[in-house]
């Protein structure tokens, strides 16, 4: 039946359409049991005032039955202490059924779940049938003769028992008609046919989905359902959930053309670059140390090293109980999935046209980032992308504003959506909208372009259309902080296009504007600007331009002034990453030594909680020793905390990248040699 497996999610919350009811404990007092039944019955009766988009007749009927039972229970309550054992068993079964009934009513009246309940109408009706039969069975064996009741109440209970046995819970005619209409719509999308708006509106009207916000609530709920770690049984639901999300996305963008979308604000996470993305720039980290091939299912062993699952399993099955890379004994052979690295590998494969095996154990938190799980959703999203592209060109100003928001929302979801939007031709129009005098329109346009720039075809299209100049203009003159930080993030992704780093760096305003954002921007803006500069430094020709813009002093101030908490730690790490890249060249090291950075770097080496931050500091100090060693090495040698910090880092070698480990050893070697001399 519904909800048989996985009734609770990873956080202990009840899963949708699952019924984790529990029997009352043995030895519970009759009075307590009856009180609990009365409380549950009151909760169920409160659903009389709720709106049920579907299952209206069935909901009303079961609430009526339990309302009658409530009168019976309230009369029993005064003499509950005298209940016989057989009555307590019957009441325990009723308690279990009441719990499940409350869960079911809660789900079918849940905000955002209307469309899914409609598609599951036969199963839900079946669950109502099971519950009413459970009530009938409990009443059939209830020893009424042993309970002190008035004649009218006893007669009422007997009548209710007969009604419960005869009651038939079936689909409402309206539910059947709406469900049939929805199936036709989904079938049309699967075949690449755009359904008529009249048919769509009839289904939405029946469910009470009457606004853009209603649509968004449904999409949010369905997306959350898709995000759970499901069992194999639940995975069969993914195509249905994906189809419904595609359909609702189409409705949100096409059907509700002028609605309450202005009230929708997007979260700051959309325009924040992730520090882990730097790992994508070092392809060695994506290679399995055993097979020397790109990992498809990376797992981490006890020592902290990561291998491809198939390779390390063969190693272990051969009787090897040591870590292949470190030679240390594996206390346990448990393999922990490295989800963060797996996402990065998958992104790398998509962007470089590498086939990624579907057989690997990707959970759908990752596969959802690729594209829809059903042909229906694909058809709906392709049709929606074409509609939005036309609206951006030919629509009124209000329609264009809404279409830009829809593009922003769609491009946030997955790679398939971005590909559809790029193919539909939205990039040139979005670039034109960057010159809009409406701050909201400009912010939505630059944020949408940021999302599209994550797709290799999207960033190539932006460069081909000459969009770089418009994006740099937003970076320098954007009316909002959000626009500027989105522009900085977009520049980072554009720097991944082959040969683009030089073109971006050659624009006179780019690097100075990024440095200015590091000085004056929000924490998110500073972080994005630092990573954009890091991307530009992949071309050596940009190195002197970055130094000339005063980047070193700005980053050093950022490192010294940022508190060691939360988001600020990430900003410090990103700043250190850029300084480490600059310090590899002699002129970069000299620029760093002209600032008060050296003593502060040694302090941070002791105190920063970030291992990545400490590794970047080691890289900077090693470069300073090599490029300006006459003054640097004696200073570091005199500070006993430096060597202690280095040995501490070395003790964490199992969790360090091999390149970082080599730098730690090299710096120790340099300092020991100086001390010996």
TrEMBL record:
Statement: the UniProt record of this protein carries the keyword Acetylation = no
* One GO BP annotation of this record: protein ubiquitination
Task: Write down the chemical reaction(s) this protein catalyses.
Answer: S-ubiquitinyl-[E2 ubiquitin-conjugating enzyme]-L-cysteine + [acceptor protein]-L-lysine = [E2 ubiquitin-conjugating enzyme]-L-cysteine + N(6)-ubiquitinyl-[acceptor protein]-L-lysine
List the keywords (alphabetical). Repeat, Transferase, Ubl conjugation pathway
Q: Where is the U-box domain?
A: 281-355
Q: Identify the EC number(s).
A: 2.3.2.27
Q: Under what name is this protein listed?
A: RING-type E3 ubiquitin transferase
Q: State the organism named in the record.
A: Trapa incisa
Q: What is the lineage of its organism?
A: Eukaryota, Viridiplantae, Streptophyta, Embryophyta, Tracheophyta
């Amino acid at each position: 039946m519904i909800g048989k497996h996985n009734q609770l999610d990873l956080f202990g919350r009840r899963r949708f359409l699952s019924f984790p009811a529990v029997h009352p404990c043995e030895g519970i007092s009759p009075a307590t049991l009856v009180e609990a039944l009365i409380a549950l019955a009151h909760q169920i009766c409160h659903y009389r005032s709720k709106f049920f988009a579907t299952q209206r007749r069935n909901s009303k009927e079961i609430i009526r039955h339990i309302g009658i039972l409530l009168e019976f229970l309230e009369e029993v309550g005064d003499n509950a202490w005298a209940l016989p054992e057989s009555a307590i068993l019957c009441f325990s079964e009723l308690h279990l059924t009441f719990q499940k009934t409350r869960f079911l009513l809660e789900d079918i009246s849940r905000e955002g779940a209307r469309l899914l309940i409609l598609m599951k109408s036969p199963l839900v009706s079946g669950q109502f049938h099971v519950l009413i039969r459970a009530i009938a069975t409990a009443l059939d064996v209830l020893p009424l003769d042993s309970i002190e009741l008035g004649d009218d109440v006893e007669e009422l209970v007997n009548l209710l028992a007969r009604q419960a046995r005869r009651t038939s819970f079936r689909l409402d005619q309206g539910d059947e008609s709406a469900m049939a209409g929805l199936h036709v719509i989904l079938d049309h999308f699967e075949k690449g046919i755009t359904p008529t708006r009249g048919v769509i509106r009839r289904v939405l009207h029946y469910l009470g989905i009457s606004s853009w916000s209603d649509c968004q609530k449904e999409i949010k709920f369905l997306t959350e359902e898709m995000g759970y770690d499901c069992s194999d049984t639940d995975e069969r639901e993914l195509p249905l959930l994906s189809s419904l999300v595609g359909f609702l996305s189409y409705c949100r963008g096409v059907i509700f053309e002028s609605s309450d979308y202005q009230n929708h604000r997007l979260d700051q996470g959309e325009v924040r670059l992730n520090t882990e993305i730097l790992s994508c720039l070092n392809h060695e980290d994506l290679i399995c140390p055993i097979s020397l091939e790109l990992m498809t299912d990376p797992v981490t062993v006890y020592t902290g090293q990561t291998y491809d699952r198939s390779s390390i399993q063969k190693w272990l099955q051969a009787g090897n109980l040591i870590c292949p890379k470190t030679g240390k004994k594996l206390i346990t052979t448990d393999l922990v999935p490295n989800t963060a690295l797996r996402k990065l590998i998958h992104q790398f494969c998509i962007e470089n046209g590498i086939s990624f095996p579907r057989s690997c154990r990707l959970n759908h938190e990752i596969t959802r980032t690729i594209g829809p799980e059903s042909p229906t959703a694909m058809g709906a999203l392709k049709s929606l992308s074409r509609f939005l592209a036309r609206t951006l060109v030919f629509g009124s100003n209000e329609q264009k504003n809404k279409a830009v928001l829809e593009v922003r929302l769609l491009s946030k979801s997955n790679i398939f959506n971005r590909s559809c939007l790029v193919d539909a031709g939205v990039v040139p129009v979005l670039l034109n909208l960057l010159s809009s005098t409406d701050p909201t329109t400009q912010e939505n346009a630059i944020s949408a372009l940021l999302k599209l720039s994550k797709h290799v075809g999207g960033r190539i299209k932006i460069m081909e259309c000459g969009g770089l100049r418009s994006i740099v203009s937003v970076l320098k003159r954007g009316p909002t902080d959000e626009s500027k930080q989105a522009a900085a993030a977009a520049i980072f992704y554009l720097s991944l296009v082959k040969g683009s780093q030089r073109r971006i760096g050659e624009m006179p305003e780019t690097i100075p504007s990024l440095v200015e954002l590091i000085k004056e921007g929000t924490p998110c803006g500073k972080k994005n600007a630092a990573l954009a500069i890091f991307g530009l430094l992949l071309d050596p020709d940009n190195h002197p331009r970055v130094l000339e813009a005063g980047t070193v002093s700005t980053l050093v101030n950022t490192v010294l002034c940022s508190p060691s908490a939360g988001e600020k730690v990430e900003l410090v790490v990103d700043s250190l990453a850029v300084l480490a890249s600059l310090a590899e060249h002699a002129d970069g090291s000299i620029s760093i030594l002209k600032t008060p950075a050296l003593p502060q770097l040694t302090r941070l080496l002791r105190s920063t909680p970030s291992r990545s931050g400490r590794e970047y500091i080691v890289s900077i100090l090693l470069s300073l020793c090599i490029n300006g060693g006459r003054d640097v090495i004696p200073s570091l040698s005199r500070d006993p905390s430096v060597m202690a910090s280095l040995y501490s880092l070395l003790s964490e070698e199992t969790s360090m990248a091999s390149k970082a480990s080599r730098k730690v050893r090299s710096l120790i070697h340099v300092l020991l040699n100086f001390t010996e001399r």
